[in-house]
Amino acid sequence: MKKIAIIALAWSVLGLSSVMAESMVVSKVSDDLSKVNLNSKVWQGVKEYYFIAYPQTAIEVIDADVMKLNAENKAKKIMVKALSDGKNIAFLLKWKDASNSVQKGYSSTAFGDGFAVQLPVNLDSLPYIGMGSAGRPVIVHLQKATGITYEPNGNGDVYHQVNSGNQNAYGKDLKAYTEDVAKLGNGNYQRSFISEGFRSLTQIRDGSEDAKMQMHYAKGVWTGIIVRKLKSANLDLTKGVFPVAFAFWDGDKKNRDGAKVLSQWLEVREKGSAAKLAYLDEMTQGDAKHGEQVMLENCASCHQYKEVKNAPSFMAPNLSNIGGYSNASYLVESIINPSAVVVPGYNTQAHPSYPWYTIDDKGVRTSMMPPFDGLDQKSLEDVVAFLKTLKAEVSQ
Amino acid sequence: MSQRQLAMVMDLNKCIGCQTCTVACKTQWTNRNGREYMYWNNVETYPGSGYPKKWMALGGGFDAAGDLQPGVVPSIQSDYGVPWDYNFEGLAKGEQLKPDVTPTWGPNWDEDEGAGNFPNDNYFFYIPRICNHCSNPGCLSACPRDAIFKRDQDGVVLVDLDRCQGYRYCIAGCPYKKIYFNPKISKSEKCILCFPRIEKGLPPACAQQCVGRIRFVGFLDDEEGQVYKLVTKYKVALPLRSDYGTVPNVYYVPPTEAPPKFDAHGKIIEGSTRVPMEELEKLFGKEVHEAAKTLKDEMKKRKETGESELMDLLIAYKHDDMFRLDSGYYADYAKSKSLEPAKIVDERYLHGKFTKGMKFFAPQGGHA
């Protein structure tokens, strides 16, 4: 694990040459964090950590406007603070965004800014960064900036779905009706999901994984908080250390779903805890230059990355930002045993000529990528070192 | 791929553009709850911009290699058109009648304009469009949440609103732009082929109400059905823009029976037809030539001999024959899969059950 670099600079004059933190220590407080909000005093003086969120480019979304607006996307520098009261964990995040985009009004083309926090259900293996993978579920908490939205079919309440113009009421009665309808709306677009890969994302509606999330925009910066229980039906984050990942959407660029910037898995450590998660260790050695050569010889016939586009489109995930949002252990695992993490669903319908995996009668998915378990240790380390260099520049 | 596939055939030679289908659908499904701007069924003039505006140029669908193509999500304001209302109440106060928004675009903005020079060779025809309930749906392939599914029993393509997260890639992926974003619930919605009616043996509202009797509904594998005969036996019903690769299940009898053109002196050019075959080929593919020939041959045969099964089909004598739906099939399917079969009366709308205090449906005096 790299030494944590705590940057004491003010937000407005962030230097980008400084080393980013892949680990953060949680500050313990005695306040009841379930009552904390964006402006609570408890955040004052809490240690600031910084990480980088990189544009998701493994898969390309099929909205032509999104492709155009996000082609030149840079990485974003994010500030995070972490607090715990022993029962709850709370994060405060700050990120720059040129505009305050809210999905509202009678529009099909408005998209809201937003952020999400991802936590693994099991701590024994690292789930795929993009919403988990088969057998390695994650809990995702999402907050989006939207206007009022309604439940589909109004939870069976047919009466309040009739437009006021079609309602057989006038004057006071119509006003009362309109007010009743308005009460059914919800201006807080917040969701908790469980997911085992892109397509499996499923909303948890029974309240078992509820979180408190808020976001506020001022002077070009969004501030967001999330507070949730350390222990719940699906999660146990009380072992002294756990991984967390964050994602951010820019509504102005029509960001949603895979059109986003995301972090790699970051370590969250309780102060003084000796617990270790080996899969969060970064490899420190490796000759990226040699790795690049090995990549060209072994990987470039299927994967596209940066300017290297020898492979046909859609044949395999694009690796242009893989170094930004992937942990070294995941890269090693996926090179040696590509079937360890298979993301269900993607590519089967949209690009049938290049299925990324096969599926047998028992539902076991096998990646189309052959295992490169014959690669010598040095080459493996060199390739990982090179992969870690594949990432977008950080936005100034 | 579903076990069976329902399909619809529309005879464009008989469509008069009266929009009764549009109204049937609108009052049934889309006059409320964020769907106001949507026309799950619309009738557009061809040549024309269509609905949404220039939908054929908005991408989606598949290329020859089977790869899903990027598309765009049209804007309600500029491409669909915002529904507007009038200040009727103000009229009593002496106000002038005016719309509550400034209309800049709407469905049928260019209705009946068509192309060519009046009166010599101008032409247009109508294309009613619903969701094609494709066998290889672009919307389904584009959805990153597996929120769109194709029913096993009849191939109807539906959105699971519980899974839908409102990303709108389905709209980009559908080359027909027949799936819509509902801004009120932030989810996508589309034509459901009136499946609650279908399951009871009733045709979709658009087909039932069609005054020109241009719509046939039935299963593609039902060899006794008129849909099968038009599509497979006579091959006169063709899918719209099959080059998009989605394998659509709405078929059209092309409008080959247009009046002749006039020459410079206003005289009829014998043997000419106003609707250019090149335009029909763009819409229905090369097969349109063969279909046109079959239609002409059968018309001739009917004239000469009084017999033609195809002409009898297209005359559309009886709704019973045009709509080959089998509520028994759905009941058996539901039983075999332990699903709850469709009820005779949809209980969701049972008077008073979930509509307490609903004045609109309340008897005289109302209820609490």
Please give a handful of descriptors for the protein shown:
heterodimer; A: 396 residues; alpha+beta; Immunoglobulin-like; six-stranded mixed barrel; two-stranded antiparallel ribbon; 15 strands; 14% helix; 23% strand; globular; disordered N terminus; B: 368 residues; Alpha-Beta Plaits; five-stranded mixed sheet; 11 strands; 26% helix
Structure description:
The complex is a heterodimer of chains A (396) and B (368). Chain A has three domains: 233 residues, Sandwich (Immunoglobulin-like), CATH 2.60.40.1190; 31 residues, no CATH class; 100 residues, Cupredoxins -  blue copper proteins (Immunoglobulin-like). The N terminus of chain A is likely disordered. Chain A starts with 22 loop residues before the first strand and ends in a 9-residue tail after the last helix. Chain A has six helices and 15 strands. Chain A is globular and about 80 Å long. A six-stranded mixed barrel of chain A has the order 1-3-2-12-11-13. Chain A is of the alpha+beta class and 396 residues long. The longest helix of chain A has 13 residues. Chain B has 368 residues and is α+β, with helices and mostly antiparallel strands. Chain B folds into two domains: 319 residues, Alpha-Beta Plaits (2-Layer Sandwich); 33 residues, no CATH class. Chain B is 26% helix and 12% strand. Chain B is built from 13 helices and eleven strands. In chain B, strands 9-10-1-8-11 form a five-stranded mixed sheet. A two-stranded antiparallel sheet of chain B has the order 2-3. Chain B has a two-stranded antiparallel sheet with strand order 4-5. The longest helix of chain B has 19 residues. The radius of gyration of chain B is 22 Å and the shape is globular. The C terminus of chain B is likely disordered. The chains are: A alpha+beta (396), B alpha+beta (368). At the A-B interface, helix 1 and strand 8 of A face helix 2, helix 4, helix 5 and strand 6 of B.
